[in-house]
Design goal:
By secondary structure, this protein is α+β, with helices and mostly antiparallel strands. It contains eleven helices and six strands.
Length: 270
């Protein structure tokens, strides 16, 4: 972990267990991963032997370009109703029925945006490891912000559009083939938020407020979402100032106990 930085964990005090239909929403998103992988296996049978989990959809494992990954995503429907899932994935009917027992059936499953989020999060995880190894905490903070956008539901006082449209994916393919470094970098898979949409308005506003403060490098939702904590990567010299701002402008303002403190990341068991 960078010596120049501190990691603040701030409890939003929004509790997922009190959110209406929280368990259903969690499990609906997992179902989108499952159904999206089934669709890709069906549409691209040449890769089936390499696809056990969603994380297997990457350039190294499939020996393909990033543009090919985007083409695979373009082949997915943006949304599918339960009836469409059953009709188009009839060969998986037993597994589909088993998955759907875990949640209330939604009006539709947001297949493409969720699958893009999952693929991109895996790419961000791999990149974060390399960034930590070389101490590039500036870029690491930017990835945290992108990751949060993948969970975001609210921005600039209105609902956030997290869809992954055809035009959006085609623009990424075009950028990858350009010779302009900025465009090529923008189109990298790890720079795509996708749309898992398991944040809350309160958490999004807290992330946006703290991200504007001096010394903050990145901030994002932690854990499964619909409540809980945010992680804040901050320059070490500014950490106590950020804690004071959180106390004054979030916790005291909302009559909450101080719920933020500095944590020190350690190596896990190995």
């Amino acid at each position: 972990f960078p010596k120049e930085c501190s990691l603040i964990v701030a409890n939003s005090y929004v509790e997922a267990k009190k959110s209406a239909g929280a368990r259903d929403q969690f499990n609906q998103k997992v179902a989108c991963y499952e159904f999206g992988l089934m669709m890709i296996k069906k549409l691209f049978p040449q890769y089936v032997h390499k696809l056990n989990y969603l994380r297997d959809i990457n350039t190294e494992n499939l020996s393909v370009t990033q543009s090919r990954i985007y083409e695979m995503l373009l082949a997915l429907p943006e949304k599918m109703t339960s009836d469409e899932v059953h009709e188009q994935l009839a060969e998986y009917i037993d597994k589909i029925n088993r998955i759907q027992k875990s949640h209330k059936i939604p009006e539709y499953y947001e297949i493409r945006s969720v699958v893009l989020y999952g693929i991109a999060e895996c790419a961000r995880s791999n990149r974060s490891y390399e960034l930590l190894k070389r101490g590039d905490y500036i870029t690491l903070g930017k990835l945290m912000n992108i990751s949060h956008d993948g969970d975001r539901v609210w921005k600039d006082k209105k609902s956030y559009d997290y869809s992954a449209s055809d035009s959006y994916l085609k623009s990424l393919i075009t950028d990858l083939s350009s010779e302009i470094p900025e465009r090529v970098e923008r189109a990298q898979i790890y720079n795509q938020p996708g749309g898992y949409a398991c944040s809350t308005k309160v958490i999004d506003e807290l992330v946006d407020y703290i991200s504007q403060q001096e010394g903050v490098l990145g901030a994002e939702l932690s854990g499964a979402g619909l409540g809980g904590c945010i992680l804040i990567l901050v320059e070490k010299d500014e950490a106590n100032t950020i804690l004071e701002l959180l106390k004054k402008n979030y916790y005291d303002k909302n009559n909450l106990l101080m719920g933020a403190e500095i944590f020190r990341p350690l190596s896990g068991s190995s």
